[in-house]
Every structure is written in structure tokens, then in C-alpha cells.
């Protein structure tokens, strides 16, 4: 079944039921479950890890990612982050980046895509499964000069495969400008 054309967006896409998406909480939204993740990386990450702990958070198929803690109550996550920032200011100075990611739907998509080569994942949103396609602006999407405004739209079809539905979004191979 031909669905139409979907644009390549430079920051990722969310595909799902329109009514479910009405309740989507974006990057700066409130935590949907009262939890957050704290991550840190940079020049002093080994020192911080030795002193304060944290686990490697594999946010990419390579297994590489920052150090930190997942699923902390939001207030505790903010306190841990401030504690690390204070340690950095009072100690070695610049060189450690600390991030608090509230469990918004945006962040839940990111987490669902950790470990997938295309950073894709499915979350439940308003009782409906919703697909998130994530990528970095410097990654796969920008080579297409993304978005509808640039005329970069490609056919999407829904196909039956082994009793399941599969979305096929056909984007031509990259051909550098000569």
C-alpha cells in the first residue's frame, strides 16, 4: 500500500497515530514517569568514575557511550548532576560535561534506539505503538539535504511480511555532488 512521500528530517522522525502523537512530550517537556538519566563524559570522566561511580551507558551499536546512572527519581538526578558540576567547578575546572535527561517521550525514543544501527525504536504512546527514527544532524540525514522544504521527500509504503506490517521508506543511495 502506497502511503505517500515522507521527507528526510535532519533531526529524526516520529511515525504513529496522530491522536497518540497529540500527547507527545518533546525534548524540554516534563518527565512522563518522574524519572531521569544522568550521564557524564569528557576530560575527567575516568577520575569521576573512580571517585563517584556510574555505569557505561551504551547509546550506540558500538557499545560506546557516556558514564552515568539510569532511571533515577528526577529530584535525585538533578542533585547528582549538580554535585558533579560543583565537584568540577571546585576541583579541576572545565572538562566534564554532565547531562540530565528527563524521561520525556523524546528521551524514551532515544533510549529505545540505543544499540540499533539506525537509532530506531518503538515506544507506547497513548496506548499506540509509535516508531521513532533518530539520527544526528551530522549523520545519515544531512547528506540528503533533508526536509520537505528542500524537496527531499521519498516514497513510503506499507507491506505485509510474515503476518506483520513493515514500513518501507525508499531513500536513494548517496551520490556526492561533483
Query: Count of helices?
Result: 4
Principal-axes shape call: elongated
Strand content: 25-35%
Q: pLDDT under 50 segments (min length 5)? A: none
The side-by-side strand order for the widest beta sheet comes to 4-5-3-6
Mean pLDDT over all positions: 84
Secondary-structure blueprint:
Blueprint (H helix, E strand, L loop, with lengths): L1 E6 L5 E3 L2 H4 L13 E8 L2 H8 L2 E2 L10 E7 H17 L5 E7 L2 H9 L6 E6 L2 E6 L19 E9 L2 E6 L9
Antiparallel strand pairs: 1-9, 2-8, 3-5, 3-6, 4-5, 7-8, 9-10
Give the gist of this structure.
This protein is of the alpha+beta class and 178 residues long. It has four helices and ten strands, in the order ββαβαββαβαββββ.
Give a description of the structure.
This protein is an alpha+beta fold and 178 residues long. It has 2 domains: 1-27 and 104-173, no CATH class; 30-103, no CATH class. The protein has helices at 18-21, 45-52, 74-90, 105-113, and strands spanning 2-7, 13-15, 35-42, 55-56, 67-73, 96-102, 120-125, 128-133, 153-161, 164-169. The strands form 3 sheets. It has a 4-stranded antiparallel β-sheet with strand order 4-5-3-6, with helices on one face. It has a 3-stranded antiparallel β-sheet with strand order 1-9-10, with no helix packed on it. The longest helix has 17 residues, at 74-90. It is elongated, with a radius of gyration of 19 Å.
